[in-house]
Amino acid sequence: MIGLKTFPLGGVHPEEGKFTAQKAIEILPIPERVYIPLSQSLGAPSVPIINKGDRVKTGQLIAKGEAFISANIHSSVTGTVEKIDEWIDASGYRKKTIIIKTEPDEWEEGILLNHQLNPTITLTKEEIIQRVKEKGIVGMGGATFPTHVKLSIPQGKKAEYLIINGVECEPYLTSDHRLMLEKGEEILIGIQILMKAIEVNKAIIGIEANKMDAIEHLSQLAQKYKGIEVQGLKLKYPQGAEKQLIKALVNREVPSGKLPIEVGCVVQNVGTAFAVYEAIQFNKPLIDRVVTISGKKFNGGNFLVRIGTPIQALIDQCGGLPENTEKIINGGPMMGKALVSTEVPVTKGTSGILIFTNEMSHRMPVYSCIRCGKCVSVCPMGLEPILLEKLVENKNWEMAESEHIIDCIECGSCHYTCPAGRPLLDMIRLGKNKVNQIIRSRGK
Predict the structure, then answer these.
(1) How far apart are CA 411 and CA 256, in angstroms?
(2) Alpha carbons 88 and 269: distance in angstroms, whole number
(3) Are 158 and 262 in contact (CB under 8 A)?
(4) Which residues have C-beta within 8 Å of that of residue 413, sequence separation ≥ 6?
(5) Cα atoms found within 13 Å of the Cα of residue 136, Cβ hemisphere only
(6) What is the mean pLDDT of residues 135-141?
(7) Coil, helix or strand at residue 278
(8) Average pLDDT score over residue span 313-341
């Protein structure tokens, strides 16, 4: 590891609150029922291939991702399909969901349960991408972009670097941190598999300096794996955003509206590398993930959770909700969103659940902008958040688009730093939705 790097423009450093960093991953018991949404990744919802009354095995394919950008879904449990109905998800809306009454595990044939470390990679590049697609692997950092699409390099483009995101810069979240400590070797083999799939000989794992134990652990392990380097990063949010991570690690800038492959990079999360390892070496589909549940004065932890498990089961495992609970957040406090129900299920993109008290949920009163410029100075994309807020208020969509509102990565640094308490991110999200609608309508 050489020095600590970071991105040059903007950023903040919120209170870390990594209360669960020393808590080892525990396996959460299988609940009585699981609720598996058909829309768990970026792109089109999957199409169910089972019916009410069917008995399914753990790891069995139950819904196909038929669109170009979509992902297969597998049963996370053994049991009987009670119904395929609408159920509320983390967005707050009711979406089509497969509801399964569970039984003890009976695994689908072909999934290897002997998880002895296996460093031998026998599949070809094409076979790796096809297996990743079959097993429904998506980005585990929260974006849930189907991984097989990311690994399919467009014609005329060439990947030079595989960037591995071990930053986990959102406060409170520690699931990636624990995974790096407890499954470091598996992650490194997963990285080698990904390197073979995109034909690169250089991978860089970026980790923030508040996880020195993970930096040291992976640096030591990486000495055995050719072409893999570990790079420590300064504490600065949003270091884990794709464009900021690429700038910090290889000093390249992804152009507006373009993907990392434009500058020769493919970015994957450490959780994705682990899921790829399990898919390739053990034929295991993505049916579980590590989730942090945390909050001030809350006895949280890191749990390996079957997809479809209600959030309430995680809360129960930690002793229930404190009396002064005001808000439950899906994800980190900077980019996460409040849940409307504890019956919302864990999905492939659930990295953390935060239990917020009255005090933590309090929003300061909103005052008039004092023109201090702090929101501009912390924006990592070089935007003017207060200007974008005004354009959205005035419904000036044409100028909002010309001022690059679409480039906002919704990190929340502007809202976090605003001394007037203005809801800058909320307004920009509204504006992005409207401008995106206008852009899509041009293509019709």
Answers:
(1) 16
(2) 27
(3) no
(4) 10, 11, 12, 237, 238, 334, 375, 378, 379, 380
(5) 31
(6) 95
(7) helix
(8) 93
